[in-house]
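On clarity, I found the account of how folds are encoded harder to follow than it need be. For illustration, here is how one protein appears when written out as sequence plus structure tokens.
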Amino acid sequence: PAVRREMIKVGRFWLAQGVDGFRLDATTQIYIDFASDVGSPRATSRNIAWWQQYDAALRKTDPRVFLLGEVPAVNEAQAAPYYAALDSVFDFPLAKVLLAAASSETSPDLGNYVRNAWRSFRQGANGRHRVVDSPFIGNHDRDRVIDQLRGDMSHMRMAAAMLLTLPSHPFVYYGEEIGMHGMKPDPSIREPMRWDRNPHQTGETWWEPAPDNAAPSLSVAAERADPLSLLNFYRRLIHWRIELPALRDGGIAPYPADGGALSAYTRADHAQRLLVIHNLSGTGREVSLPDTRFRTVIRRTRPDIRLVGRELTMPAYSTAILQ
């Protein structure tokens, strides 16, 4: 009890400094004493009870506090109970789905997958608050994304395109947006961010070497100057989210054009309805849209994406947003 009271004091202290919320590490491991406790209903129940106590105490200081939990679940059903105490959890199952889809060049039917996951999350929240998902593709406990994808930059771009056109609050692990490398053990996946071509430039973390990311071409400075770089690809997608309200705040639903190498889903809010289509493959595709609701390509990652009537031309490894 004394430890719990002290942790609540710590949280309230930082809220008083203007912090809006917390990313909570290892939220499933608070009451794990033995290996047999991992995933047990008893441990899960005790973990959630503590986070409910923590949440209730912090909301007395700031009713809008945002709590995001690291819940390394195997599936959404394992993560859902934590929505009874937290505003959001990192979506580990979805991360695996996105990387597998990019690697295999096969649609994971994201419209249905995400909608079903949200249904599970809402059940876990039990009306406590609106569901906020936190999708990602890379984090500090896994091999870097580009290495999981065996260095395939086209697959890297498609994984990012799916991530950044999904609902809720996507997270980007530092360096992912410039293609930083790194495989276990942990020091290799937590190397210093490469800002400049010269690792000894003022402002660089030069006292800690970065052997996996030593190439001068692998830096923010190098990629900023290249309009076709991975960094500028991420920036473009992030600006799409800023510019298109439905892409940022809307819901998600399946779309009949989805299947095979084509990942297709709609994003909609009260004022805007969008169709997102990814060609995950290295082969160009001709798509016959099943209806005429979406008449204009308003964002594209390739200039040769074209819509004529209901016929959409999608070059290899491309993303289009239609309105």
In short: The two ends are 55 Å apart (CA to CA). The mean pLDDT is 95. Residues 146 and 179 are 6 Å apart (CA to CA). The chain has eleven helices and eleven strands.
